[in-house]
Amino acid sequence: MKKVLVVIVLMAVGAAILLVFRPWTDAVQPEIQKEARVYSHKGKQIHEEMFFLENPLSSDLQRVHMFYTAMERPAVILVPGGGKSSSDFFQAALDGAQDFVVFTFDPLGRGESQGVETMHGKEDQAFLYGVYRYAKERSNGSVSIASFSFGIAIVAGALADYDMSIDVWVDWEGPHERTFIAHLCMESREDMQKLSLKEKRIIRSEMLKKIFKGTAPGECANDEYWAEREAFYSVEEIKTSQIQLYVRLQGRNDHVHQNFSDHALEMVNKMTELGFTTRLNDGPETIVYTEKSIVEFLYGPFDRVQKALDVIREYYTERLGHFHNVQCPLSLSPQ
């Protein structure tokens, strides 16, 4: 009898420890300081709810915006790039709310969020998981995510670390590992942009060798820092069941790297190699690209956020009725 009691006590203590140290409970976080607005946009009433959610790792309050015309629709989370915040998505969120429940947020230390900016590390990744869980509760349960530029690090890290299942991940020109994030490990972005495509490839090849040997210069040398922020490696920890479709949006003239698009080539090929259903822009699904073959599929100038919403809208249009066994009344009008 004493042994049974000891076991019960130990189990109770263990459960208490898990509750204390586990960053998430089964309950979705409550909104803090909630406000609401209504806009008239393209003939419809768009509702916006603004509130804060607590970051589970830092305990800072972070701003979240939710836009919708109706709740029983798929949720779309827009993830900002380096130095950006929810304010970059206001107009696009109004447009997207015609068909979706759209969520935007301010990463740590940006916009109206508390805390110190972590440049899309574990804290921001944990917060995205919180937004994801909230989005599932406030929509029809289907969630897609669009990341922009360095927002790729937040999405890849969150999917790798947490139990998240999404329909579509749209990745706009995301720098997938440190040489692309840190401008080929050079002192400035401007110095990198002065190089020819051939020079960029040569320098990057040299930097990758130095990283492997542990002799990389400057900010590229900090392996511990980059371990949280290199999507190219984080995606190896994501199960194929977690993403139904990965779409890379890439222009011929990248917003940072100009005509250097090897990050798109490598990211799409990596996701394909891992077994995900993939697509580059409007190209065929799940094919492997080369430096030569990728060029014909790259976009000219385009609206990055609108195109991301179009991709997600197209996905639900084609699969409406059998994904998640939901019927969602999309307007499905061409944008």
Tally of structural domains: 2
> Could you list the spans in which at least 5 consecutive residues all have pLDDT below 50?
1-24, 322-335
User: How much of the residues is beta strand, in percent?
Assistant: 15-25%
Mind telling me which CATH architecture of the largest domain this is? 3-Layer(aba) Sandwich
Radius of gyration: 21 Å
Q: What profile does the largest beta sheet have?
A: 9 strands, mixed
Name of the CATH class of the largest domain: Alpha Beta
Q: What is the number of beta strands?
A: 9
Number of helices: 11
Large-scale geometry: globular
Mean pLDDT metric:
89
**Which structural category fits the helices and strands?**
alpha/beta
The CATH topology assignment of the largest domain is: Rossmann fold
| Largest sheet strand order | 1-2-3-5-4-6-7-8-9
User: How helical, in percent, are the residues?
Assistant: 25-40%
Q: CATH superfamily of the largest domain, called what?
A: Alpha/Beta hydrolase fold, catalytic domain
H/E topology pattern: HEEEEHEHEHEHHHHHEHEH
